[in-house]
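Morning, I've got a small favour to ask if you have a moment. Here's the protein in full, and shout if anything looks odd to you:
***
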Amino acid sequence: MLASIREQFETIFREDPAAKSRLEIVLCYPGFHAILLHRLAHRLYNSGLPIVPRFISQISRLFTGIEIHPGAQIGRRFFIDHGMGVVIGETTVIGDDCLLYQGVTLGGTGKERGKRHPSLGNHVVVGTGAKVLGNIFIGDNSKIGAGSVVIHEVPAHSTVVGIPGRVVRRGGCTDSDMLEHAQLPDPEAQEKAELRNRIEHLEEQVRTLIEERVPTRRP
């Protein structure tokens, strides 16, 4: 447990430039509290102890605003930045070195049973307010843009944005903190621009046809 706490300190210092000291993290970081409480609840959940793991997760939710089902499997060096409104479902599987921002949901799509929540590979970043839903896999080193809704599998080394989420970039860096929202492509804006250009081109063609068929009147 002490090794896990030490590793969590190191992760927060690496991912959050605002972190200044261990005391500040202990007192002021709800993501730190939520992860440690989840580690305890998950261990009790795996031991078959009834009720208590869920009670611990609800106490954690009350004090941190982060809801993690004790059945969720979370890898090492996991970090939730700010964290308010984060929801992680029972059958979620999260790899190592993953980063979630506030308002993220790793949830299901209905009342199906069995594996019904997403699985994240290693070094996955999920941006603010994004929803990753259903039994899908998000490949290693992938980035989910803020506000996206992802309901399909995502290949490794991909960047996904939009509703529904679409892969707009493949390959590139593998650092877990390189989700530059200001530099992400906007597929909806690109489609609108293409439609606008197409409409202008068609209007120009129509004007040309009209001018060719209707002779100009002379006084």
About this structure: Residues 187-213 form the longest helix (27 residues). DSSP finds five helices and 15 strands in the chain. The chain has a mean pLDDT of 87. Residues 39 and 149 are 27 Å apart (CA to CA).
